[in-house]
Amino acid sequence: MGKIDLAGPGLWTTSVGSFPKPDYITKARSRFARKEIDREELRELEKKATREWIEFQDSIGTDLIVDGEQYRGDMVAFFAEELPGFEIGGLVRSYGNRYYRKPIATGAIGRDRPLTVEWWEYAQSLTDKPVKGMLTGPYTICDWSFNEHYASRRDFVLDLAKVIRDEALDLERAGARYIQIDEPAASTRMDELDLVIEAMAVVTEPLTAHTITHICYGDFHKAYPKMLDIPVDQIDLEFANSEYSLLDEFSDDPFTKFIGLGVTDVHSHELESVDEIVDGIRKSLKHIPPERMFVDPDCGLKTRTVDEAKAKLTNIKKAVDVVRAEL
Amino acid sequence: MPIETTVVGSYPKPPDEGQPFTVRKTLHALERGDAGVEDLARAQDDLVMAVIAEQEAAGIDLITDGLARWDDILTPFARKMAGFEIGGLLRWFDNNVYYRRPICTADIEWRGPVSVDAFKFAASVATKPVKAVLPGPVTFARLSVDEHYGRHDKFVLAIARVLAQEAFELEAAGAAHIQIDEPALLDAPEDLELATNAVYLITEQLKSVESTLATYFGDAKRLGPELFDIRVDCFGLDLISGPENIQLIRELPSEKNVQAGIVDARNTKLEGENDLVREIEELASLVGEDCLRVSPSAGLEFLPREKARAKLERLVGAARRVGA
Lengths: 327, 324
Description:
The complex is a heterodimer of chains A (327) and B (324).
Chain A lengths: L11 E2 L9 H11 L5 H22 L16 H4 L5 E2 L3 E5 L2 E4 L2 E2 L11 H8 L8 E4 L1 H6 L2 E2 L5 H22 L3 E5 L10 H12 L5 E5 L5 H4 L10 E5 L7 H7 L5 E5 L11 H12 L7 E4 L9 H21 L1
Parallel strand pairs in A: 1-12, 5-7, 6-8, 8-9, 9-10, 10-11, 11-12
Antiparallel strand pairs in A: 2-5, 3-4
Helix pairs in contact in A: 1-2, 6-7, 10-11
Chain B lengths: L3 E2 L16 H11 L4 H22 L16 H6 L1 E10 L6 E12 L6 H10 L5 E5 L1 H6 L2 E2 L5 H21 L4 E5 L10 H12 L6 E5 L19 E5 L6 H5 L7 E7 L9 H15 L4 E5 L8 H17 L3
Parallel strand pairs in B: 1-10, 3-5, 4-6, 6-7, 7-8, 8-9, 9-10
Antiparallel strand pairs in B: 2-3
């Protein structure tokens, strides 16, 4: 179990991971794809955007910082592009008019070098607050890839688990005290929740950092309380998108971990009011004490505009301040 | 006669690597106000023509328009009929694909056709027969939220009546094949009788349409042979995600047809042609060549475009070797 070393009595603010990319990044990425600028030029802009997002989080008083993933496209492809054994596949649709490149496992998956440590070090150098290490979990990487190599999904997932464990260990060695291993796919198939748990155990067993996993878009009501067996210190869940319906489950089976309480819908342009968020936090405090609660958006904010994302984060912070004053 | 081939519905929208992705660009332009709905319609027409040409070139006998104008099978209907609002994103079964959940807040009513113009367009540019695809009433209801009817059966039947009107209009527009998608039924055996009643409302009024009830993403073991009491001519079964469906196919009544999903629509790994030939021969021995149509296991939209095409070519290659 990792240790929380944040100030205050709890109810800390954070984010799930991604932030929207400012126009200059979107443009630079297309220009890079067309080979009009080189990697170095793109990287300088990504650093600038990262710095801006960290400054913004610091300016509103966020407790646990994320780097905003300005240098990542898709959360699975970012890893698959760098891991031997994967090929980058063609475009497939995720929803609406959104598409991603779905990787194809064509050989045994391994890792040549750390993938996220340099960016983490850069982000941490910009702030005195702790920055989360951000990884995609083995089950999700498997589930969101095609498999032409492994005989079973379990073999595939467990190979990925070793890769992600090594990456997490490298982050920890670099100084990360909070490491998030996202498993948005964990709630997809109830009959594979055991595999999610088994793989996460491989990843987190040697870690001393505070570990977090983010899960979304699933039938939580079926996955709960079994999801509490996922060996992490904290689970981050979306509450705004489901109108806090998961809280009902907590009456019968108390939520025993730290929670990341998602209080703003990330797929809606609509801005939740401070009052709405305050209500949501108050309701949730009936089930989970403040010293085990982080407050954040439902999911990564990358599909919002920069202004929408900032407005949502600002209202979260305002709402947390209101509730903190009542503690 | 070689074994007939078909597709289950959707087809990838992205073009081949390096080609312009006009539909995506036009949708972005539309959002920014730089394009109009007629620009989108033109881009979608082009996509439908390309999708149809690819299926025909691959040798598919019974094609679809690739559902190329839709995000999923529910929302176009939920937007058009009275009674629904569109809610948040939810996972589409066990795929990394998401749909917007319809929310029923008032009486459901038919307010005009949803798919008829698209069907007419597809039929006008195709040389092969085009199959129209409709969401099944149970799947529609189960993937929606009912805040109005308060009773699942009433909700399902209200949806079925609207879909019946749509099917009627499709037949009037010349559709000879209509597929009703009921993937959600696989996990809801308690709804089988309700599905039987609801689908009856849709199909009993049709005069000469060949109707198919399509299931995918799993096996129909929990439904059992009572599945075949549903009043359709053909049953779509996914033999990739539901290999046990082969047992059920043994119990197919002799007057019914099967649409057997035998190439994996959700993984890029290409099936071996010899393996497919053996599988088709086994299926043909169970139900008879005349009652068998082979297909991918589900809509092909889960694959990149080139991979989808390769799967169709492989399917047709195998089907033509059987009974040739």
